[in-house]
Amino acid sequence: MRVAFTREADSMAETAEVGIDRTQVKKAVQALQAFLKTKSTGDSLFLDDTQQISLLFTLWKIPPKAQTIRIPLPHGQRSDTEEVCLFTRDEPNMTSDQTIRFYKKLLAEKGVKNITEVIPYKVLRTEYKPHEAKRRLLSNFDMFLSDDRVRRLLPSHLGKHFYLRKREPLCVNMLSKNLAKDISRVVQGSYLKVTNKGSCCMARIAHAGMTADEVTENVEAAFQTVSTKLRTKGPVIKLVHIKTQMSVALPLYTSNLNHLTALDEDQKLTETAKQEAAAKKLAKKNKKTEDVKKSEGTGEEIPQLVPMGTPSKKPKLETPKKKQLEKAPTTAGGKKGRKPQNKMNKKGGKGESKGKRRVPKLK
User: Fold this and answer.
1) What is the model's pLDDT at position 346?
2) What's the pTM?
3) Beta bridge pairs of residue 236
4) What is the DSSP letter of 153?
5) What is the CATH number of the domain that holds 260?
6) Does any domain span residue 303?
7) Which of 52, 131, 172, 274 is deepest in the core (most CB within 10 A)?
8) Residue 190 and residue 173: Cα distance in Å, rounded?
9) What is the mean pLDDT of residues 207-236?
C-alpha cells in the first residue's frame, strides 16, 4: 500500500510539473508561418490566411473510454470570413419564416454577429431530407451550432456524413443571459475528440492569419487543458506536434523517457491486483469445498432432493353409444306398423260379406 501511495504522489507531481517550452513552441510556429509564406502566391494569399493550424497529440496508451474535451482559447481561432449555421427549435404558434426572424432579432439584440444562417428544426426535417441536400448543407458552412433543446433530435436527420467528418453541431443554451459570450466561447474555442480506437487525436487551435505570439498562447492553453482533463492515470501525453493541412508535423513536446518506467510500474500494479483478486476467488471456492467435506465426515445427513412421482392418469370410461331408434316408414293410407290394405281386397271382401247369409243350424 505504501508503494501505491508513493506512486500516486509521484504521478501527481509529474502532471503538475509537466509543461511545454514556450521558446520551442514559438520557433516551431515561426517556421510553420515561413513555410506557408513560401507556398503562397498573390492569388492564394487569402486562402493561406485562413488555413487551419492544429495540434496533434500522441498518447502513451489508448484511453479506455471515448471523450470530448472543450478547449477555451485566449485568442479566437476562427476568422471573420467563416460561416456558422445555427439549428433552433420551432417556436409555438409561429411559422418557419417567423421563427427565423425571431431568432435573428434575438441574436442581434444580444450582440451576436458571427452566425450567418438560422435553420429551424422543421425546415431541416423537410427541406434537407435528401442526401444531396445534406451534403450541400455540410459543404456550405464551416461550423454548426444547435439549441440544446433540439440537440437529441438532430442525429437522425443530419446523416452520417456530419459525424464521419467530425462536424456535428455543438450545443448552445439559447436561454442564457450572456448569450453572446457563450456563443463566442464555443465558436472561437476548440474541442478535442479522444477515441478509444487509437492513441492519436487532433484539435484545431489557430489559423494562418494570426501572429506568432497569439498562436503560442493558444498552444500553451490547449496543452494545459488536455493534460488536466484526460481521463487516464499516470503520464498521459507522449508527443505533441503542430501542423497545417498541407505541411509536415513539427515537434513541440516530447515526454521524458522516465515515464516508461512509470507505465511499467502501473502495469505491474494492475497485474498484481488482478492476481490477488483471482487468488481470493480461488480461496473462497476452496473454502466452500472444505466445508462440504467436513459436513460429510461428521455424518451429518445432507438433504437431497427427491423427485416427486407424477400421478398416473385414470383410464377414461367408455360411454355406451346411444342406440338410434329406427323409425318405420309412415304411409298415407294407414297407421305406423300396419300394412296398407289393397282396395280390390276391400271391395271383394265387402261383396262376399254381402252375398253370404247366415243359415240357422238344425237340431
Assistant:
1) 47
2) 0.61
3) none
4) G
5) 3.30.190.20
6) no
7) 172
8) 17
9) 85
